[in-house]
Amino acid sequence: MPRCFKTVQCTVDQCKMSSTRRSMSHYDPAVAQVEKALQLAQSSNVPPELLQTLELACDLIQKRDDYTDSNTSYDSAACRNILEQTLKHDWDAVHRQGKTTWNLRPGMMTGRLEGQFLKSLVSIHKCKKILDIGMFTGYSALSMAEALPADGKLITLDQDIYLKELVEGQFFKQSPHGKKIEIRIGPAINTVKKLTADGEQFDIIFLDAHQGDYVEFLEYIFGQNLLVPGGTLLIDNAFVYGTGYTSNPRGGSANRFTDVLASNPNLHRVLVPLRDGILIVRRKSDVEGTVD
Ligand SMILES: C[S@@+](CC[C@H](N)C(=O)[O-])C[C@H]1O[C@@H](n2cnc3c(N)ncnc32)[C@H](O)[C@@H]1O
């Protein structure tokens, strides 16, 4: 089952909410096992050295997260507002009222660390056009738009009109960069088809929606050149909370899109182990240097 599919409540996604506390390690199932081992050790009669080693391991994990956070720039006031308002929102009620297709969770937000990473990439790329697939409350969209030049444009996609009204009315207006963002509502694959048919092309595409659709997106992105030559595809949650590399069936959709990417000899890939993994994909011809 792909993550967050419609009404499925993703427990791991909920824990993404604690991203303000633990920006990295709560995505790592190995860390959860170490923490579990510590709990077991605390309630058992184990050698003191083993207990101390496990306590030290957990302390190191926390300190590494804190160090990561303290060496990452703060997000803008408008992004922080999105974060705070998203945490406060009653997503269960909204979903019960039929206003959102998915039972959305605050933990689905990219958040500060990933937002700053995306913003950095956009600034390094010096790009002008971005496609953000999977808007939610617009954190990734605004983080990236903040690095665009004044004539830059970001199109962000989601499926619920409720989100468009919320994000347009309350969040993007609070930033001078909000005017660079256009929201399109509808099944993302239909919007992607329309963008391709209209001849639109993007310098960066950030994919953060329903993973079951990713193989189809790839056909438009690379097969039909939705991504400009020299462009970059970024795929969020490439680890699928660890299920991408374990036998858990939730890893299924991840394995399909990663397999499709791996079988294409023309693509260069790097999986950055930031939070739940960001896969950076470019055409090999754009990555390889030349020699005289
Ligand atoms: C993980 S959230 C995106 C988080 C966002 N990038 C951020 O930084 O806050 C995924 C979003 O994709 C949307 N989505 C899921 N399936 C979709 C589909 N088929 N078409 C359009 N949007 C979809 C969901 O409604 C949800 O808001």
UniProtKB/TrEMBL annotation:
It comes from the Eukaryota. Keywords: Methyltransferase, S-adenosyl-L-methionine, Transferase. GO terms for biological process: methylation. InterPro entries: Cation-dep_OMT, SAM-dependent_MTases_sf, SAM_O-MeTrfase. The keyword Zinc does not apply. GO terms for molecular function: O-methyltransferase activity; S-adenosylmethionine-dependent methyltransferase activity. The keyword rRNA processing does not apply. Belongs to the class I-like SAM-binding methyltransferase superfamily. Cation-dependent O-methyltransferase family. This is O-methyltransferase MdmC-like isoform X1. It comes from Biomphalaria glabrata. The gene is LOC106073331.
